[in-house]
Automatic annotation (TrEMBL):
Stretches for region Disordered: 156-179
Organism listed in the record: Algoriphagus oliviformis
UniProt KW keywords: Signal
Listed name of the protein: LPS export ABC transporter periplasmic protein LptC
Superkingdom of the organism of origin: Bacteria
Gene that encodes it: lptC
Signal peptide: 1-20
Length: 179
């Protein structure tokens, strides 16, 4: 009796496995969206117990590869070695590429060096934390005290106190202040 039951089971079992619906492997997609989301983030980078940068964002999305996106904007503050607020950088959207240790701001990007009375506007800027540099290949407008400069491409230290326009386009003396 047992052997007959085993024999019937061995005959019927393959039919149960054959009833599965086949799936086209090309229809299977790997999820590449955010794996983590945070709101009202505040990050501080310090060196020798002195705050060097602060990063604020209304929303942060983190991805599997470690990249981050700040879809509602990003605000970065840079401090001197004495702890004085020196430079601010804001952008409509921000991105952090982990492999390059590189931040990118896009949209309405504004950088202000409060100590040297300098400001910059562009549609895209990159900040390399390790090299302490900011740069862009896009059009920029810079106000340096009472003079307005414009051009394409820029390299600067991350405090925006020592900058170089790659392709200057023009220079205008301003009667008032602000861009």
């Amino acid at each position: 009796m047992k052997s007959r039951f085993l024999y019937v089971l061995l005959l019927v079992l393959p039919f149960f496995g054959a009833c599965r619906e086949s799936v086209d492997p090309s229809e299977l997609k790997v999820y590449d969206g955010p794996i983590n989301s945070a709101t009202n983030i505040f990050m501080v980078h310090s060196d020798s117990a002195v705050v060097r940068t602060e990063i604020r964002a209304a929303k942060q999305l983190e991805f599997q590869n470690g990249n981050q996106e700040f879809p509602e904007g990003i605000d970065i503050k840079f401090y001197t070695v004495d702890g004085e607020l020196e430079t601010t950088m804001v952008a409509d959207r921000g991105y952090f590429m982990k492999n390059e240790n590189l931040y990118r701001g896009e949209g309405n990007v504004q950088i202000k060096n409060l100590i040297k009375d300098q400001s910059l506007k562009s549609e895209e800027i990159f900040w390399n934390q390790a090299q302490k540099k900011i740069y862009t290949e896009k059009f920029v407008t810079i106000q340096d005290k009472g003079t307005l400069f414009s051009g394409t491409g820029l390299e600067s230290d991350d405090s925006f106190s020592d900058y170089k326009l790659k392709s200057p386009k023009g220079q205008t003396e301003l009667p008032g202040e602000g861009i």
